[in-house]
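Note to self: keep these together.
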Amino acid sequence: MKQQIIKLSPVLLLISAIFSCKKDPEPVNESELITTMVYSLITSDSTEGAPTDIANFVFRDLDGDGPNAPVIIKDTLLANKTYYAIVTLLNESVSPIENINEEILEEGADHQFFYEKSGLNNIAFSYTPLEKDVNGNPIGITTILESGVKGNGTIKITLRHEPNKYGLNVASGEIINAGGETDIEVSFPVTIK
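Structure:
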């Protein structure tokens, strides 16, 4: 038995030497920490003097996977209105607060927001032509929301990293064929009155 160990020792040393000479692996570019999502909407009323409706939905989870539950602030929308909307992602765990939208716009071809509804049958989302990636595909930070009739439900906002923007209906906002990895996904309770 000792002779077998002695015979294997040079082989083990050689294997050890080969693996110890390998270069250290390249560091992985980790995704940004997202602690906060703010979904802000404002009506676009063409009638002069018409009151403007502003709504803000906020998701905040400052301790990430820590023991504290995320805080979700909900709001209401008015029925049968057109809203211009913007979603803002932040990392509030650092000072100064980091605006993640800047990186998303810089790497637009690798990101797309998706908006889904549940229980709000008449609500409709569309991407604005304001921001597109280098290939002319939507990123989805800004959208137009048609509120539809009164009701209760949820709006789910998902940011996908490296989606297939050429998948069936992905450019029009359908997430089903998007693939990629989810960077953040938040569901906001919504009342339309």
